[in-house]
Amino acid sequence: MLASVDFFTAQIGGVLMIFMSLIGLLFNVSAFYQYISLEKTSFHIMCISKTISNSLHLLVYLVYNGPSALLYTQIGPELLNRYLNQAIAYGLYCQGPLTQALITINRFLIVYFSPIIIPWYSKWITFGSLSACWIIALYFSTLIGFPDSCLLRFSHQTLTWIHDDCPYFIHYILQSDFLYLILPLGVFSNCMNFFIAFKLFLLSKNQSLSTEASRQRRNTTIRLFIQNCFEDWIYVLDTVNSLFIRDKVNDGFVIFLVTLGSNLITQVADG
Length: 271
Prior knowledge:
Layout: H1 7-36, H2 42-71, H3 78-113, H4 122-142, E1 153-155, E2 160-162, H5 168-206, H6 211-244, H7 252-270
Antiparallel strand pairs: 1-2
């Protein structure tokens, strides 16, 4: 049985969700307008898609979960609650690591094969890959074929997600499937980033650059490598955190921090 939180604690959680989602939206909307103004390469198209999914994710906290906790009441019908929170816990959430894996593959192909002319069909491959990602996200957001009770709902009384009457074995299968999707994506992207960093390091050694230019190239490579590894693993750590650590604590506000709080911070940091 999850511990309930009082009205004041729920309001603190609501304010935090609204405040952090506003910051995250600022980052992601700024990134969206930056990418939309650039040439529509495959990389930029994937980045645009990622900022859209992140922004939709953050909007749920801004217009629904945050106000619901602040007012200490459910807003609208329960089914609306379930679909919105199923999306941010599973559907829209998995868009991050899926798109990040595509971005990593794109970067790997450019670094290792250095195409002089980009094939005309490359954008169609990008659109097809992103469409597949959005279909996966749609399925995890709606859970077609499963009872509505298996959709997560946000409880303003506990400040976390609840499955209610979903049979335990279905709940376990959903969690396991999701973990086995996020974890391999993180490992795959991270391994690809090691190969990319290694190739860039060799290129910097082979090119006749000045000492200053070589140092700047090396620093840029290191910075991008750290950034990419962070983006790869932040979703894995958050997923493990939400699935396992929440069962080890009893305090309602701490459970909020390791579930919805962690989920929200992941989107803000990813932006």
